[in-house]
Amino acid sequence: MTETRVAYRYAKALIDSAADTTALETLRADLDKLAAELKQSHELRVFFHSPVIGRAKKTSLIHLLFDGKLSPAMMQFLVFLCVKRREGIFMNIADEFLQLYDEKLGNVRPSISSAVELSDGQKQKLTAQLSAQLKKKVFPVYSVNPALRGGLVVQIDDTIIDGSVAHQLEMLRSQLNARRN
Length: 181
Description:
single chain; two-stranded parallel ribbon; 6 strands
């Protein structure tokens, strides 16, 4: 079974374990904290991925490092991952959890690229328009791509809305070439 499928199953079990929205929010906050720690600390990543360190030692070190910092539910989940030897795919589980979390709460996280940095007003207007169209809470991730020359490219999951000048020029070029032939 692929890591993604395994990670999905663990993330689904974790999200299903949350009794209410408050518990779900707590798990989300804990996952964010732990993911940030893993991204910052090379030693912690090595520790999580090491097959040499035994289960008992890993669980005791996890308790030593995270007791009081993470919720009991997250601590129990981390210990469970160690027992099943799945702590090495924690970041994949966190990614899958975030997708399931967004799905459950009706959130969408579009990727928006523009040729120049958008002003705060433009960002707010764009977020409001997307939210109204999708009928979901929108949490966009903005980036700047000068190759677009102007306009925007919005990607929501597998859907791409390309309103860039570069795309419009390419379409015009294709139409002109088709007329010549």
